[in-house]
Amino acid sequence: LESDFPNADDTDVLEIGAGNGRNALEIAKKGYNMTAAELAKSGQDLMIKQSAEYKLDNLSVTGEDFLKNDNKNKNKFDFIFMSHVSQHFDFKDLNNSLKSINNMLKTNGVAVFDALVRKSSANDLECYEYEKEDGTCHFSKKEIELAAKNNDLKIVDIDDYDESPQSVPWYVNSRLWGRSDLFSRPVELKWLTLKKQNSETLH
To answer: How many CB atoms lie within 10 A of CB 81?
Structure first.
């Protein structure tokens, strides 16, 4: 965020699935125009309380579902962040969500989200059994590339996830991820960075 958009005052940021506001509050403290979207009322209330305590006039908290593809927020955000959300998506959900994200991003805007990505060495049966037991959804790299291409988004980076205990999400700690067969799992947790292209560079 800071490397792509160093001028915080002129940068509009959206976090989808902001939870209790851990990320949104820190981003707002840096001066960015922050919108934190969280469907759970408890999360909204906590963020509103903390926003008042820190006097963050640049933090807006909402229960709006920003992944509904409408034109209400068209070309509104420079940076969209989504953490621990795509693990509840199937491919159709992923495609529709990227369509909404593309619609909301300004030209050359950036979206970052985490996803469980299939290892190239994994076979279909391994992945199916893992997904069934773990209760999370995952995608092949080709599926992610296809969803991005379908929605005029360019994948600019795929990064490894920090797997330290304080960083991994709830589903990693509570299910298969923490078992002794850690390195035999058929999926990897990755950070994906996508960029909205301008009209001259599309396709």
So the answer is: 23
